[in-house]
Amino acid sequence: MRISHIVRVAACTLSALVAAPSMAQAPQATPASATPAAQEAPAASPPAGVADAPAGTLLSPPADGSTPPPAEGEPPADTRALDETVQDLKKDVVDLNKELFVLEEELLFPANTQVAVFVSMDIGTFFALDSLTLKIDNKEVANYLYTPREAEALLKGGVHRVYLGNLKVGEHQLVAIFNGKGPNETDYKRGANLKFEKGVGAKYLELKITDRQRKGQPEFAIKDWE
Amino acid sequence: VASVPARFAALALCSLPLVGSAADDKNYALLGQPAPDLVARGLAGQNVRVSEHKGEVVVVSFWSGSCNTCRQQLAALDRIAKTYASAGLVVIGVNLDDNVSRAEKFARAQGVGFQLLIAAPPTTGSDYKVDRLPMAVFVDREGVLRVAHREFKSRDEATYVRELRTLLDE
Asked: What does R_g of chain B's alpha carbons equal in angstroms?
């Protein structure tokens, strides 16, 4: 159902993209150049009757009942319709992208093997995060450098998903190594580890950096979200 | 010992472009594609991420401490950066030497005002398909890689300015 919808939207997008140039060119395909007389006329010369009209005078609509030209400053109806079509297409593309993203996540990281590791930070008086290295079962799976903006976002309550991967059911070990500036602007490197059991459902782990006020030191912990 | 081959490699890269001009490289494979993300430690000690500058026009210049032309390019980019910073131009210099301490010394000697990154990840060169130095790529406000320049000659500064102004005006 979802795939058919995606295919339908993609087909719609393609057909509209193919149709768009022809729509845009449609007004130019007027039969002005079809008659030999028009071909012989100089390109810059105005149509008969226009040159005599005073500036700003609205010309009366053609007697043959064709569509009158749009008022000055207002886009022609064709352009408006095209613009609306483009906006609709843009919205379809955004929706399609969202659906594809969800599908991709479901396919690449099915719930029964999914493991996600998040980083959060509280206060940050005693520690300024610079980088984080993550090892699962002694294998380095992530190494992330935090920019000042990212560190600031963490301090404002943001949570960063530093790793998303797959693990088989069973016992595993997670080691996180934090690098940064500790109290008194000194280089600071600390580790935290956790043995966890991966069940049939998705596993979410949180690396929490908090300040321990009494000791004047940062604290690093790993929380296992059931 | 590890730095010697790297130095030779950098010298070889610098000597390659002695022929030909430094015009835009239309054959650069990444043109029109989103710029690969790049994060590395800046000379000032803070980490810098290229993708964080989306919304600004970004110049990423790849350089080496053993490349004379790189100095000229960094100096030219410094002048451009000072002029157009207020218009939303960000210049990032990325060092590709293996010898970090030497690169850091060289970088400090340049005295440029923009961010110089050292100890870039080993994949940086291949991610950006850097095959000669100096090399500069221009990334537009949407994060798309629009222009690539291999080599540098003094007259290229005017070309840089013209192209960057076009990107800044978009």
From this structure: 15
Give chain A's residues under pLDDT 50: 1, 12, 14, 16-61
For residue B39, what is the nearest residue in chain A, using CA coordinates?
A: A145
Q: Which residues of B27-51 are buried (b: 16+ CB within 10 A; e: fewer)?
A: ebebeeeebbebbbbbbeeebbbbe
Mean pLDDT of the residues in chain A: 75
pLDDT of res. B5: 55
Integer-rounded Cα Rg, in Å, for chain A is 32
Q: A147 and B40 in contact by Cβ < 8 A?
A: no
Whether B154 and chain A come into contact, CB under 8 Å, resolves to no
The arithmetic mean of pLDDT across residues B7-12, rounded, is 50
Chain A residues touching B39 at Cβ < 8 A: 145, 147
Q: What mean pLDDT value characterizes chain B?
A: 83
Residue B146, min C-alpha distance to chain A (Å): 23
* Pairs across A and B, CB distance < 8 A: 18
Cα separation of B142 and B70, whole Å? 27
The three-class DSSP label of residue A197 is strand
pTM, full prediction:
0.64
Question: 3-state DSSP call for residue B167?
Answer: helix
Tokens describing residue A57: 């005078």
Q: What is the pLDDT of residue B144?
A: 93
**Is B129's Cβ below 8 Å from some Cβ in A?**
no
Name chain B contacts of A145, Cβ cutoff 8 Å: 39-41, 47, 49
